[in-house]
């Protein structure tokens, strides 16, 4: 795959301008993005929890989808209309309350019209993933 077409700062500015409903606060930060991989951090908040004190599925799915969007933007540039066509998630273990959630995304295949990737979700500093995600994005003709 080619080098990144957008830096972290450029992706962040694009998201603030074009997608503020998803990237207007400071709860999610993009720690790295290089056109092939990215690392996002969602700061812990009690809003992330479901009954029973575990990080909720919707929180994890949203972060994983957002991580795929970020790694894709870093690879293809500012194409806002790239959309998720498939997302599959396997919940592996409980996300711990009080811990940030990290999303490590990587592109597996980048074509002209489709991109396929995977995301590993981690709780705090534990190396054991709490969820594994595969996702496909549709890339519009530009």
TrEMBL record:
**TM region(s), chain numbering:** 66-89
| Nucleotide-binding as UniProt keyword | no
Q: Which SUPFAM superfamilies match?
A: Thioesterase/thiol ester dehydrase-isomerase
Q: Name one GO molecular function term.
A: 1,4-dihydroxy-2-naphthoyl-CoA thioesterase activity
Q: Where is the Thioesterase domain?
A: 52-124
The record lists the organism as Bradyrhizobium betae
Question: Does the record carry Mitochondrion as a key word?
Answer: no
Cellular component per GO? cytosol
Query: Pfam families from the entry?
Result: 4HBT (PF03061)
This chain's protein is named Phenylacetic acid degradation protein
Query: Keywords on this record?
Result: Hydrolase, Membrane, Transmembrane, Transmembrane helix
Q: Which CDD domains match?
A: PaaI_thioesterase
